[in-house]
Amino acid sequence: MSPLVLHPLAQDLLFREARTANTFTAEPVTEEQVQAIYDLVKYAPTAYNQSPLRIVLIRSDEARERLLRHMAEGNRPKTAAAPLVAILAADNEFHEELPVLLPHFPQAKDLLFAERPVREESALLNATLQAAYFILGVRAAGLAAGPMTGFDFPGVRKEFLDDDHTPLMVVNIGRSGENPWFPRSPRLAYDEVVTTA
Questions:
Q1: If you compute the radius of gyration of the chain from its CA atoms, what whole number of angstroms results?
Q2: Is the pTM of this model over 0.90?
Q3: 70-85: pLDDT as tens digits
Q4: Are 177 and 19 in contact (CB under 8 A)?
Q5: FRET label pair with 162: which of 2, 7, 74, 120, CA 20 to 30 Å apart?
Q6: Eight-class DSSP state of 14
Q7: How far apart are CA 128 and CA 44, in angstroms?
Q8: Helix (H, G, I), strand (E, B) or coil at 81
Q9: SS in 3 state form for 110-152?
Q10: How far is CA 74 from the centre of its chain?
């Protein structure tokens, strides 16, 4: 009996067979799919339930053209072809939501996160954790995700965000197209990663 309780098909969908897609079909990603993904991944753990991830969906041709100008050259074709593109960002003013998100400790807003550098560090870590869950959510919807950090971060921030938001990654989303995968790269073995103290 496997020590994993998740069905093997689900394990494959989320982990073993999941890949970063480089080509996509033209099938659209619906608002209902995105809502379902969010409703699943909003339960990702974050410190003090701060939930600093913010998502900008790129749907219009005009917005996509603006984004393509900031993408690394090798990432432009797949970002141009993906049915949906998401900019994932960290909200450095997440503490404003803490009285709602952390009702049993609303004073955390001022006691722990009054200083901007503290918020920026915490937002970066926790929004990145949420971004990983977002990728799993896209996979759970039967879609392919192509997360990328090859872009002009200050340019994307200026174009789509503001000084209170830090871009983390751009994620192409859709059904994988023709020849979508690069060969699988090696992974480290358990005993190369895990030690016991």
A1: 18
A2: yes
A3: 999 999 999 999 999 9
A4: no
A5: 74
A6: I
A7: 11
A8: helix
A9: HHCCCCHHHHHHHHHHHHHHHHHHHHHHHHHCCCEEEEECCEC
A10: 20
